[in-house]
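Reopening this ticket.

The earlier resolution said the output was attached, but the attachment link was broken on my side. Pasting everything inline this time so it's all in one place.
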Amino acid sequence: MRVFACLCSLGLMLAPPAQADSVLRLNDYPTEARADYVFACMTVNGRGREALTRCSCSIDVIASILTYEDYVSAETVLSLLQLRGERTAMFRNAETAKTAVADLRRAQAEAEIRCF
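Inline output:
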């Protein structure tokens, strides 16, 4: 039994950094941000238990792909793009803004495939 425990501990220490990074990324989203996402998702997809499960899965998938900082950046750009006027033109044309939104869209598409 002790040998098994030692081997498990050793396996955890030798886990590849990418896997450890993925676990850290999955847990770097604040609970409030996850809840906001799930509530908004359930508004669109229904308010039942199945929608709760699928929407929770969806934010978990997104969190495994994007850091919270990248998620916030993309959501901010999307919010600003809803506004009209000259002041928001720089967000429509900025390559970093386009990349942030594209990354979020890809993460959302992956979440859609896995969870819905």
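Reporter confirms the inline version is readable. The longest helix spans residues 95-115. Residues 1-18 have pLDDT under 50 and may be disordered.
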